Amino acid sequence: MCDESKPVDGEVNDNKYFSKTAATDAEVTFEHRSAPPETRLYKKRWVIVFLFSLYSLCNSYQWIQYGIINNIFMRFYGVDSFTIDWMSMIYMLTYIPLIFPVAWLLDKKGLRVIALVAAALNCTGTWIKVASARPDLFPVTFLGQFTCSVAQVFILGMPSRIASVWFGSEEVSTACSIGVFGNQLGIAIGFLVPPILVPNVDDLDELAAHIRVMFYITAGVATFLFVLVVIVFQERPDIPPTHAQAAARRISPENYSYTASIHRLLRNKAFILLVITYGLNVGCFYAVSTLLNRMIIEHYPGEEVNAGRIGLTIVIAGMVGSLICGIWLDRSKTYKQTTLAVYLMSLVGMVLYAFTLDLGHLWVVFITAGTLGFFMTGYLPLGFEFAVELTFPESEGTSSGLLNCSAQVFGIIFTICQGKIMDSFNTLAGNLFLCAFLLIGTIITGADCSILIYLGICSSLIVKSNIVLGQLQPETF
């Protein structure tokens, strides 16, 4: 049996008047009325979340593998820097129209089907790239990247669903952080490995051989992980991990309307504010990651490898931040305060990075980039878990899908705009452009938290009064 979580500090679902943790607390209140459903935690839950993290890693690695050696691929394929930027932005663009049908599939078909499709598409894309290691085959390599970008749509919405389906209530934030951790680690490897495997050599035949080796390694790993997913990945545990998950299983799929769920979410004012602020923060991260090679090379020519190491520093620091934030949320349940604090520090980190990039000392850039990454990337699991808390009992896949959709939209806009600003002015102007939007996001997050504090007081009073009057039924959950 797993312990249910303690009451949260006033979180609220705008539609249902109480949050997931509040519902769990009320659930415990009714244990004397009826026998609670059996719950159990399986050791296999760790295998599932780590396997997901691995194939998520393999996919996210490919997102940045072109951009971090932008100048090398420009010369190899004979295209301009904006075209290579699209090798990263295609991940963002593909997500926007596909997220809603994929989220619907996740609700209708479940975790295993989505995992199989994601791993299969990712594997297919890597083998297409193997055939594209020639200067005249840029359309083929773009097709491979497009295929991998479609796989990403089947990956990004899964961490919160895996966490809720497989893990106990005291582990959900940690499990979600581990799921996001794999994606971040893939980006970190994408920053580090391509500059090492593909050095900036003059001979195009030698360069093609290096690129081919990189593509073969990726294809081999993706194929191995696809086989593992086919053999190991399980839809859900036989016995649910929490009472809330047991109640969710009693809801017939025929009684669930995906369209109605989206409409309810779009009427949830607190959630809409979170969608905007999440998109602003993560969109800035996408822009910085995509344009990092150009920023570093402008001030430190010939430092392609160190550009990758700086990207690695950003993501590794962010992975530490993600895990710390996930563990902190599991213990404190202070969603509002933690989200605001991390957002504010993301702004501070971006300002420090912007004003130290051109000082001429790479070690300073490593420090400020790490600070930026710790908070900006550490915000990712906070957004997912805060969304689940705000929108319970709506599907985790739907809420996280809307968050990611916002991030992709802002990511494309910020990457294009910052790139044009850098071309017309300099990198400082481009980074200050991002700082301005992070400031806006911080202000909105502060306003969102104030609204939630007020709504939380109302929520608490409503739940308590309903319990006293005997009007709240366990089936509500």
TrEMBL record:
Span of domain Major facilitator superfamily (MFS) profile: 48-459
Membrane-spanning residues: 46-64, 84-106, 113-131, 137-160, 172-193, 213-233, 270-288, 308-328, 340-356, 362-382, 428-455
Membrane topology: Multi-pass membrane protein
GO molecular function, one term: heme transmembrane transporter activity
The reaction(s) this protein catalyses: ethanolamine(in) = ethanolamine(out); heme b(in) = heme b(out); choline(out) = choline(in)
Pfam families: MFS_1
Localization, UniProt: Cell membrane; Endoplasmic reticulum membrane; Mitochondrion membrane
Residues in the signal sequence: none
InterPro entries tied to this protein: FLVCR1-2_SLC49-like, MFS, MFS_dom, MFS_trans_sf
GO cellular component: endoplasmic reticulum membrane; mitochondrial membrane; plasma membrane
GO biological process, one term: heme biosynthetic process
Function description: Uniporter that mediates the transport of extracellular choline and ethanolamine into cells, thereby playing a key role in phospholipid biosynthesis. Choline and ethanolamine are the precursors of phosphatidylcholine and phosphatidylethanolamine, respectively, the two most abundant phospholipids. Transport is not coupled with proton transport and is exclusively driven by the choline (or ethanolamine) gradient across the plasma membrane. Also acts as a heme b transporter that mediates heme efflux from the cytoplasm to the extracellular compartment.
PANTHER family: HEME TRANSPORTER FLVCR2, MAJOR FACILITATOR SUPERFAMILY PROTEIN-RELATED
Family classification: Belongs to the major facilitator superfamily. Feline leukemia virus subgroup C receptor (TC 2.A.1.28.1) family.
UniProt-recorded name of the protein: Choline/ethanolamine transporter FLVCR1
Organism: Cyprinus carpio carpio
Lineage: Eukaryota, Metazoa, Chordata, Craniata, Vertebrata
